[in-house]
Amino acid sequence: MSEGSQQKRVVVVGAGWAGLSATYHLAKQGYDVTLLEAGSYPGGLVAGWKTAGGKSVEAGIHGFWYPYRNIFALINELEINPFTTWTRSAQYSPAGLEVESPIFQDLPRLPSPLGTFLYTQFQRLPLIDRLSALPLLYAVVDFDNSDAAWRRYDFVTARELFKDFGVSARLYREAFEPMLLVGLFAPGEQCSAAATLGMLYFFILAHQPDFDVVWCRGTVGEKIFHPWVKQIAKTGAKVLPQRRVTDLIVDSNNQAKGVVCGDEVFDADAVIFAVGISGMKKIVSTSASLQSREEFRNLGNLGAIDVLATRLWFDRKINIPRPSNACFGFDVTTGWTFFDLNALHDEYKNELGTVVEVDFYHANQFLNLSDTEIVAIVQRYLATCVPAFREAKVIDSSVIRLPNAVTHFAPGSYRYMLPSQTSFANVFMSGDWIVNRHGSWSQEKAYVTGLEAANLVVSHLKAGQPAKILPVEGDEAHIQVARSLNQTVRDLGKSILPDFWLP
């Protein structure tokens, strides 16, 4: 820690994965960091809390996938053990069990995506439908996460993408759209093809084990964020909850000098925003300095998706074949997941009855229902997948409504998403909706963008060392060759043909 860095004040707004990531690194470099969180607890949407009866709940359950190298490195640094072992997952429709996934890393490694194709256990989907996905590999290879690739595919819907590449209607309906509903949280006609290809690359094309997942052995807030925040506090950073940011103080030199929270002002030599789209739009709506910039005004073009998180306690033990399950076909535009918390969470291992978490994405049609109506629907859906739920009695429940909770990667949205560097010289952005070239996804992407924002602060203020960001595993050799060949053909086409892609 240098004397210069100790004199530099950084304000981070938002205490989710991105904000905690940036705060932790900058505090370790000796900066005077203040982390402001609008909610009552650090953690943003993944912070867990207790009900009035002392039971743990959270705003949905999130998996930690095999490629989350940076988050796993953090866990090792904190010397905590929050995760389950690698788990198997299943997928259900109203017709019953549709798919079971193995633990891919335990099987002989085959060239990508052959292993994913051969080892995934489809119960009903015919081989001819699965083979119809082969032409789609061209687009997945073509999408290299570059700015050009995003602009090439972002105006196309996912539904159009699958149709144009000849994916069968049944494969789309029973495999790809369910993946969109629980991965991008919206039906195919409402998802950007670019975001879809980014997700497909991350989970299918990159490497055979990438679909393997572990889960937190309790709420993420209790198991990860609480010990992490304790460690952050030891570095001297201040973590202040219930501080809703309303404005940014900017001087005549294009520099942010402070962050306003109602009547409080926090002086700053640099500012990092680490909030979701909905939170950022609220801040912009009250901030004259942010409204003066087109990039922030244009955030009004971005949207978010409603989530419903429920937790049910049943009066008996029910055998749930797999601990994590995704479901489709129950509602046309809604995907949902359910988790056996007796198998996943330490707190419920010895519970006499079954505890299940059921989360709905793109759940707008459910939010206005009463808790009683929602619990009845949840039990009915569960019983369709696992019939033993039909006779069980719900003895306790939690219903959490989360309007505009998760990023909507809508067609055409990429041009309004912000990069880490803004038009303010010392204001930086982070979060899962920020443009970055790392190639990560979801929580890992949020965490990585927090490190990237911290590194921009280190560079701008010229004090401290940058964080080491672990890259995603490189493409396999045959994918590299395919990408190189594809780029050569594209470059040749540009030299002799008009540009057929609209900007």
From TrEMBL:
Gene3D superfamilies for this protein: FAD/NAD(P)-binding domain
Q: This protein's superkingdom?
A: Bacteria
**One short Pfam family name for this protein?**
Amino_oxidase
Stretches assigned to the Amine oxidase domain: 18-457
Q: Molecular function (GO) terms listed?
A: oxidoreductase activity
Query: What InterPro entries does its record include?
Result: Amino_oxidase (IPR002937), FAD/NAD-bd_sf (IPR036188), Zeta_carotene_desat/Oxidored (IPR050464)
The name of this protein is FAD-dependent oxidoreductase
From which organism does this entry originate? Atlanticothrix silvestris CENA357
